[in-house]
Amino acid sequence: MSEKRLKRQHLKKRFLNKNRLVLLNENTFEEILSFKLNLLNVVGGTLTLFFMLIVSTVILMVFTPMKEFIPGYSSTELKENAIELSFKVDSLEQVISKNERYLASLQKVLTGDVAVSKSAIDSLNKVQDLEEQLEQIKPSEKDLKLRELVRLEDKYNVFKEASPKVNSVLFAPLKGSIVKKYDVANKHYALDIASPINTPIKAITKGMVLFSDWTPKDGYSIILLHEEGLISVYKHASSLTKSQGDQVKSGEVIALTGGGIEDSSHFHFELWKDSNPLDPTLFIDFQ
Among positive and negative, which fits the CA dihedral 205, 207, 213, 215? Predict the structure, then answer.
């Protein structure tokens, strides 16, 4: 027991034994500064300094921009920018998808690969069945007179009673004789107009150029988008004066005739609205 007590006393004396730290001038040995220290003061001071260093480092990292230099740490601004970019990329993907579908539809228009909608076929079938039923009924003499009267009224008042699908005034792209008419039964959704080579082709109304380029089948072709979703297609051109994205005015020259691959002797014109073909002669006078 005495030895353990002596060791404790020796250790306590060692920690509490005061020492003097003196700073002397090397040349004159003059005392500049002196401190009275013991081992306990040195250990306590070192631990206090180390603790203050840790606390200051944590405060510096938490409340200053230096925390962004820590590997794996993402700032709030960086996260907000990443979320915003993610939304923009998603929106761009949707726009690209819509443009791809739209271009695919335009390609079908150029190649003539257009399917007649089932609703239109059903409507035609219903009309045909109704006509067959009416033919089986023998009308009376009064009925025949009434039908003739109604036929004459409809002949001269059709545009007063019916509302056209196209509300704009449309101008002829060029004047000439029609060599091939619009024919849904033979899937010819256009007019072929005879015209001399290098005849100016004009826009039927104001709009924007959707497509303007050369195609292997139809030579130089141009497609215009007009108001109310109306689309006009011009094919068999020898040259184009407008590029994709250009704005055109009514009657402005957009191309010259005479460049079709299969047949360059005529000009090919199509009119579309809401993905459905229209007979151009119902809205435009080509004579």
Answer: negative
